[in-house]
Design brief:
4 helices, 4 strands
Length: about 110
């Protein structure tokens, strides 16, 4: 029993070390994925007129960790991933869906 506990602890430490080592890469991929997800879902819903749940079908394989939040009043879609990254796209008449910066979101 004790050996199994040591093996499990070692395995957990290896996983944590791999996560820490690849943190910047993971964060960058999540940043790109959330931006892509917000923009695609915003266009799908506000331009294409599809339901937001249906818009998730347009995501690429591997984007299952990205969740979408719809703000119908402000015409925005926010994509978030693993409590690490978020991105927001807003529909603007004549422009389509545009990505918002953190400063634009906080200014409201």
């Amino acid at each position: 029993m004790r050996i199994a506990l040591y093996v499990a602890a070692l395995f957990l430490l290896i996983l944590i070390a791999l996560f820490v080592y690849n943190y910047n890469s993971i964060r960058g991929q999540l940043d790109i994925g959330t931006g892509y997800g917000a923009r695609v879902a915003c266009s799908c819903h506000f331009v294409g007129g599809r339901d937001i749940e249906d818009c998730g079908k347009d995501f690429e394989p591997g984007m299952e960790v990205i969740s979408l939040t719809l703000d119908e009043e402000r015409k925005r879609v926010t994509a978030s991933a693993l409590l690490m990254e978020t991105a927001t796209a807003e529909f603007r008449e004549g422009w389509g869906c545009v990505m918002l910066t953190d400063e634009q979101i906080q200014a409201e």
